[in-house]
Amino acid sequence: MLPATLIDYSGLLKNVSLLLENARRSSARVVNSIITATYWNIGQRIVKYEQAGKLRAEYGRALLAHLSADLTKRFGRGFSADNLETMRLFYNAYPTLKISETVSRKSSEGGNEFNLNDLSKIFPLSWSHYVLFVRRDISSDARNFYEMETLRCGWSVRQLERQIETRFYERTLLSKNKKVMLSKGAKLQPQDIVTPEQEIKDPYVLEFLDLKDEYSENDLEEALIRHLESFLLELGGDFAFIGRQKRLRLGNEWYRVDLVFYHRCLKCLILIDLKLGKFTHADAGQMHLYLNYAREHWTRAHENPPVGLILCADKNAAIAKYALEGLPNKVLAAEYKLVLPKEDLLISELKKTRKSLIVHQRSCKKRR
Question: Burial level of 210, CB count in 10 A (0-12/13-18/19+)?
């Protein structure tokens, strides 16, 4: 028990919590400003290199692929050809920045090198915000509007994306009472709320800092994924582990595939997605999205098309569903079905594991 004199402990806790949350948000903003300035600089160098060599479009793509491979070897994730293309587009969208002589200085190599701290002040939004601008087909006037409103209202990336998708700029232009429209746009919706942890775990921030991001939504899901990984490896030597929580980007959205294996006998990738809730058609659609991406970006020329496995661990029903549609022929689908673990076996293992994990968690809580 706390002494009776400490009558406002809840106020202390609230104030300290607020201080920590603000500190985390501030840290994320500082990192994001440095990221944005750095990526603008990278985009500038790519464009100037292309212009100096008067590269054609096909050579430009080859340059990005080559640069991507070398940067990835040296610095790790975050430098795919697609990301480098976004940096190039970013510089092209903001080419005529009025940067004073105090911001730029001559580098030892003879080129203009911009001070990141000063340059970051010119880009007040996060890199994720700018990615939305350069990857969406919007006019420069619309972009300027969304930038000003994002600064004025403090829009998160989610808010900005929602406003762009609902054509907030066009609706405001057509509105007779623009003041009311702008005040409505400033209101935060429940789905827009972003915690400091989510800001720090932004994929771009994690990539830039070269931090691990293989985390699951909760302990139960993470434990299930780890167990499934071990279970499949124990079924035989045909399963080769590739990765857990393997990330991919489709358009402006980031996704994670819970487990990725390679099957030596079938010569294909196995993508496994675990759902703690009930199986829905959306789960199947998302898996086919993963498979299309994996077929194009992760599958090698001599390999068969990837196959997906959706495992649903709902407490009332467990489901194992292979995504075999879209394969080149039925014979290949039948071969997959024959060699891969039986759905009944997977369901049984999933139920047993889930039950044992829940019992273990409850016993741990009692001991506390």
Answer: exposed
* 266 and 304 Cβ atoms separated by less than 8 Å: yes
CB neighbour list of residue 122: distance below 8 Å, 6 or more residues apart: 37, 97, 99, 103
Q: What is the pLDDT of residues 231-257, one digit of tens each?
A: 788 776 788 888 888 888 877 678 889
**What are the extents of the domains in the chain?**
9-198, 219-367
Which architecture does CATH list for 219-367? 3-Layer(aba) Sandwich (3.40)
Cα separation, 154 vs 158, whole angstroms: 11
- CB contact set of 165 (below 8 Å; sequence gap of 6+): none
The predicted model gives 7-36 an average pLDDT of 78
Choose among 353, 29, 81, 325: nearest CA to 223.
353
| CA distances (Å), origin 129, targets 151, 158, 185, 189 | 11, 9, 17, 18
Dist. CA 87–CA 122, nearest whole Å: 16
Taking the C-alpha atoms of residue 108 and residue 184, their distance in angstroms, rounded to an integer, is 51
